[in-house]
Amino acid sequence: MLLERISSPQDVRDLDAADLPLLCSEIRQAILSSSASVGGHIGSNLGVVELTVALHRVFDSPTDKLIFDVSHQTYAHKMLTGRAANYLDAERFGGLSGFTSPAESEHDLFSVGHTSTSVSLACGMAKARDLMGADYNVVAVIGDGSISGGLAFEGFDNLAELGTGVIVIVNDNGWSIAENHGGIYRNLAELRESEGTAPNNFFRSLGLDYRFLANGNDEAAVERALLELRDIDHPVVLHVCTVKGSGYEPAEDDAEGWHHVGPFDIESGTYEALRRSRCEKSETYADITGRHLLMRMAADERVVGISAATPYIMGFTKPRRDAAGSQFVDVGIAEEHAVTYAAGLARAGAKPVLGLYGVFMQRAYDQLWHDLCLNNLPAVILDFGSSVYGTSDATHLSFFDLALQGALPNLRCLAPTCREEYLAMLDWAIDQDSRPVVVRVPGNGVVSNPDFALDPKALAAEFALPRYDVVHEGSDVAILALGSFFSLGESLCDALSAPADGGPALDATLVNPRFATELDEAALDDLARSHRVVVTLEDGVLEGGWGEKVARYLGPTSVRVLCYGVRKGFPDRFDADELLAENGMTLEAITADIRAALS
Amino acid sequence: MLLERISSPQDVRDLDAADLPLLCSEIRQAILSSSASVGGHIGSNLGVVELTVALHRVFDSPTDKLIFDVSHQTYAHKMLTGRAANYLDAERFGGLSGFTSPAESEHDLFSVGHTSTSVSLACGMAKARDLMGADYNVVAVIGDGSISGGLAFEGFDNLAELGTGVIVIVNDNGWSIAENHGGIYRNLAELRESEGTAPNNFFRSLGLDYRFLANGNDEAAVERALLELRDIDHPVVLHVCTVKGSGYEPAEDDAEGWHHVGPFDIESGTYEALRRSRCEKSETYADITGRHLLMRMAADERVVGISAATPYIMGFTKPRRDAAGSQFVDVGIAEEHAVTYAAGLARAGAKPVLGLYGVFMQRAYDQLWHDLCLNNLPAVILDFGSSVYGTSDATHLSFFDLALQGALPNLRCLAPTCREEYLAMLDWAIDQDSRPVVVRVPGNGVVSNPDFALDPKALAAEFALPRYDVVHEGSDVAILALGSFFSLGESLCDALSAPADGGPALDATLVNPRFATELDEAALDDLARSHRVVVTLEDGVLEGGWGEKVARYLGPTSVRVLCYGVRKGFPDRFDADELLAENGMTLEAITADIRAALS
């Protein structure tokens, strides 16, 4: 096996050209067998095998700089830079990050998981090279799906006047996560069909040199094209066409389905849809949301669902997108536009419901602040996956969302504790027209509470002003357990009432705060009068989060406040329960803290 | 005078075409005389007089929707929609917002002050129109300078597949705030020179219909062009060339200088450079920064200054930009790119120093989190104007920056109290290579402290770990006064030590915390042992800010914590001292709170 003998890119360069088809085939097989076992980004990785081999034959990494956009397509790159065993040895499958990671290899320049960054990073590295009088190639590899993000445009726009050598490879497989959306994709299609000769050319319009390569899955052809560009003295775009899922028929036939899958059977091509959380075993909030929104859309033509290239997180599978028709819009990877577009929709009387991963809400901070909140427009944002039980890659941590939202004026962020409360909040958010509302969809699985009942007519009063729900009145200590961590609050009350160590039982007050960025000051005043300790539990980062607001409000009183959340940091591929334990969030640790504070 | 008789757009439509040159001349005169008195955005407003008149003659606002990008160019629009008196009557000069404001008029659809939003807003309004079966025109007016922002690209990209009527007017005056930067501007220039016929066409490359109008200062010509587009059934871009400062020679001759000025003399064309703060009477942090960075650049070719279209905030006037040469880069209005570009520079060993207004840091939240902080790269960001004494337009509030940064891992935010400490922090930030550093430049004027002394060799130890500077050790109450509010802390200590009402004197401890997003836990532990009350003072929003971190950390102790800052909200054109008073931040109110907490 050739791949086993590749310990560095030099070994790739030393191979005979005649051996390369075999190498590519081995890489492809390794992608399939490792991903079949642990899941992964199938389509994009199969598509860039030949491109990656050619990159490492033409350029001399790490002296030459290879920058991968999103970097979910770097399995072949990892195999060729000393990490092949992680894709060949079943015991090591899944041992590497799914993204480039400087901690793993000097060939990985950045921790990257978000789109559209590579052109700007390449501009920066090329500029530094020139300032410091160095001499190497800077190469960015960006997928067509990443080009719709505004940052990529800003990068291309600045690249055009950089006046020095940078090579940007646009790897065009014709797909984003789902279908591509936006005018740029019509242009890429024109360019593909005309073999790069169409008169309209986005890249040339910005003043960039442009080259076209029809078959990016022909290693020799890619190698020739790259050789022509090596050591170029100005910015150039090489538009390379590849096939998403190349070489594996099921993935070629269903590009959306095979973008990212869980374990699968190679022979039959059946896969598990990737679970976003260990807890979503059966019912998912995605499905609950899709079903409910479709019903709301049918009853009201003003309701419009919006996604930024991830329709599945809000349950909008292809059949549901078809059913929604013009009432569902995927704007592609363009979170800023998605939020500002929602602001425009709300201003003109529609009822936009935008579904975002918490981590990608970060890409639209100013649009939230300036377009939505300053204008106080009644758009609804569903904040998915925001939990320590969500995605655990450092690039995709989704539990910074409350800190992000906490200072946004006019915004109401509601944190439901169960599916019934979620639907009540969602309905209220859609029906009201006084402000932007975020509903923080629990990211730790669906809890159903059949006892939960809100009279639909009472909804307006329920969520119109910040009001806590005191679920149980006890004494001494009050547990304020926000949203997805309400069940942790219940467990904590149980543990306090029946201590394992036989200590004195405590009858703790249990509160469902419901409002994640605003305080119910009257309720806090009441609690402060009748309790000595207040505990806040939140499924998110501690700094700038919700609990700190409670601590600040109660700061002038004699009440002791204990805030629990995750300290800021970039933990990577962690076990959520271990992370909570490291942050003092076990029942044992919290009960001990409470007893100490009371004594 | 015609203008006095215009109370609504209908009056504009009722005018004889022959009267329009006079109307335009009156508008131009009103712009000049009101701005000469109170300052304003001169160049852009003079440039769009004819365009604005034509818009209100062809379209029927507010039924038809006019959306202005940035909206600093809407003086004529305001005059034609019932607000002319504010530009004609000297007593009412400056009484209106400098931006569109729905609170002022139904003709102002959004509160807008940031760039690049109009295309996305227009997409949203058009989509809502279609969903609801309505029938009106949606028109966005976007300046060429705003097109470099990625959000505008996302908007154009989505506009191309919207499949319904939207008119986007690209008002091309050839200037951003300073010179335009980016490949798109070469294309706009080509299109201007070829009267819209150049083969490379950015808008057409996205699949958009495109029209060109050479003289946008010819009202009749604009009117004819708009009439052709009214009720169009698909998205179209009208590229209109106007002259920034049109009709006023000084502004035509110096577009950058006259972008936004303070009061000026119309005859001689001499103006005050706009003061960003009431306190910056003589020495400014802009000038201090420009001078210091130029010196650092001369000594080290790795140091590179970066601006996103506002070089003047960091003191990079044209002569300093010329002196810096390739070591200063203006990337245009592209904050996301600016941050990610800085990350690339730092990764390759350069020493980027990026100057941003605090409010525009918001546009790059994810780039801060993902590109800079996750990769822990040693770029320096200078955070300007972040103070309640900064710009007071609701659109430009710059005191949310600490809440924004508070949860960003790896980031060190330093808050200097005087010019000497600022330069020490700036030097340390540039020289270190362990992490991204923000220096929060005081936005309330330059304080010099000649006694401040840090041995340059001791700098590494000073700022390498969060360490508070206990300036005075007292008892009972500790005042932690952050950065620009350190002088408030000094005044507070004085007030406590010599009470005006003859009450008991308090010898308060005074602390310069220096670290705005991290805690010195050992110092807080010490303070908690020896004080009964801890006070935090910060020049920023309370929710999610720095003081709440202190309150959370001390929550489990018996110390009372009083946090002072501004409650989240969008105050508009406020008096800073009044705003502080409303938030309980007068010496009288705070001393009373402290005495109550001690009693």
Structural overview:
Chains A, B: Homodimer. The structure is a homodimer of 599-residue chains. By secondary structure, chain A is α/β, with parallel strands linked by helices. Chain A has three domains: 3-271, 3-Layer(aba) Sandwich (Rossmann fold); 285-464, Thiamin diphosphate (ThDP)-binding fold, Pyr/PP domains (Rossmann fold, 3-Layer(aba) Sandwich); 469-598, Rossmann fold. Helices cover 39% and strands 16% of the residues of chain A. In chain A, the strands form four sheets. Chain A has a six-stranded parallel sheet with strand order 9-8-10-11-13-12, sandwiched between helices. A five-stranded parallel sheet of chain A has the order 1-2-3-5-4, sandwiched between helices. The first copy, chain A, has a five-stranded mixed sheet with strand order 14-16-15-17-18, sandwiched between helices. In chain A, helix 21 (486-497) packs across helix 25.
